[in-house]
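Figure 2 data, in text form.
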Amino acid sequence: MLLYDIGNTNIKIYQDGQIKSIKATEDVSFAREKFYYICVNALYHERLKSLDHAVNLAPFIHLDTGYKGLGIDRAIVCKAVPHGVIVDAGSAITVDVMRKGRHMGGFITLGLYSFEQSFATISDALIYETNENIDLDKLPQNTQDALNFATFQAIVGGIDAVRSDLPLIFCGGDGKKLVHFFKEASYHEGLVFEGMKEVIKESGC
């Protein structure tokens, strides 16, 4: 089974249990064999429609939710986790709550890189690099730690506010930088693809 997760920055490809990532550029070559995909990148929509062997999973995703305008990337990871809190930490960080197969809602916040860029627009003195080893139990004593403290405290606090008694699962490129702030949390690199497999299984497409 060949699966494509097409984002705005990167394209992740799953085949035979292996995952690889390539840059989302105009000259990307797609496989000539049958593949399934989800796509949030407008650059490729028309091109993919012209490929008879490319199956867009978007029309086959059915999620029990009252949320209006839920993105395809969020919906697909929710299909992989029927009961839990899913944190997809990419360019933006999305947090979605699933309880017994129903999507209860969720929220979106800035990704780690966006936090860095936002502070830098205020002052040159606020330029910093993300440090996921910041201690959130200690009040910062320098500007670098202060910025990291604020960044991670905002993200961690938001997740804690909705977690309740549910399992906590991270995915996305920056998920590994966030997971260690929580007890009994896990990181799953291929969560999107697990959701895609579930949709294929349910729909028989």
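Caption note: The chain is about 30% helix and 30% strand.
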